[in-house]
Amino acid sequence: MKEILRTALITGGTKGIGLGVAEMLIKEGYKVAITGRNAETVEAAAAQLNQLQEGAALGVVADVRNFDSQQAAVNQVLEKWGRLDVLVANAGVGHFAPIETLTLEQWQETIDINLTGVFYSTKASLAALTASKGYLITIASLAGTNFFANGSAYNASKFGLVGFTQAVMMDVRSAGIKATTIMPGSVATHFNNHEPSEKDAWKIQPEDIGQIVVDLLKMNPRTLPSKIEVRPTMPK
Fold first, then answer.
1. Which fold has domain 7-230?
2. What residues does each domain of the chain span?
3. Which family does this protein fall into (predicted)?
């Protein structure tokens, strides 16, 4: 019997969690498209992924803040592979400041990327995911249920993302689409201009989130973990 081609689209897939998820999916036999705003970075990440399996990765320049850009990204996946089985809405940004100094631009960018961007990616993918009875996975944060000082923009975006995903899960499950939000704590990534190093060994690693995605996709279709909180075992 011919194996069914499985495909995934990962927003913000050029580094960190997105790249870690892409690597794990390729190792599982998926074809993976990754998006980012910088053409050079996208090309370099796709080349790195194609070293795992030649022809398994497609780099797409796209901005989650623009719906037409997200529709074009989905169309590129469909043109290349004919189907879309998984959307991992991962692109995100963090601005952390007290409300007195948080700028209008920082607020807007955080909401546009972390929340509206996921809406755009999901909306653009919905027809393809309906056709494949696919899976929507959003990457939220423990900040989606735990508020903290200097986090007004980030908390608002991630609280909203958790609520968005759970509501969408109820909207689309009758069409055979599954939806899950993953809420990591500290992850060893470049997020917020951090440079990962050996000092981050205690943190969740990007491939750990990739493993969770793989495990979700392998789960019996009758069961849906709709919200997953993930923490380092031994936080500093």
1. Rossmann fold (3.40.50)
2. 7-230
3. Belongs to the short-chain dehydrogenases/reductases (SDR) family.
